[in-house]
Predict the 3D structure of the following.
Amino acid sequence: MNDFKKASEDLSFVREAITRAHERTSPPSIYVLWGLITLAGMPLFDVDPRWGGMFFAFAGPIGGILSGVLGARFAKRIGQESREQASQHAMHWTAMMVAILGVVGLDASGAIEGPVAGRLILLIIAFAYFTAGLYLDRVELWLGLLTFACFVGMFFVHSYEWTITGIVIGAGLFLAAAFGGRRGSTRS
């Protein structure tokens, strides 16, 4: 009878692990963090693009580090610590930051103008969210589409476009925190 009980416990563990595997891989706190950063930073581009650039030069890397810490704590708490998954997240978002640095370099060298650089960075962010949604956390797929819609919207809106974009993407991030992956108690 002891073997039967052990097998039953093992099957319960496997069932719980499979259930958790289909839930979100990023904690809601990361989406709240980036929602706040986005809401605080994007409107600065409408005031003075240099302020927005300086804000994100600091908030981007700091937010990335905090995201890593929050993600690691979340994975440990739900029993899904995985070096491979942590590495995928780190490489994905680091690649995005490197691409953004490339655009900053083009802007600094005069190869492109500031407004074009900002829009290219927004396009890179949309692409990063969308591709993250394909293999990291499904909720980011629609965040990528939302960010791309903001990119397209900038062709038509020419007043306070960064403020509007910040509000829309920030709201999307808050909605992702509140409703994305709501299959169980994986809140952080």
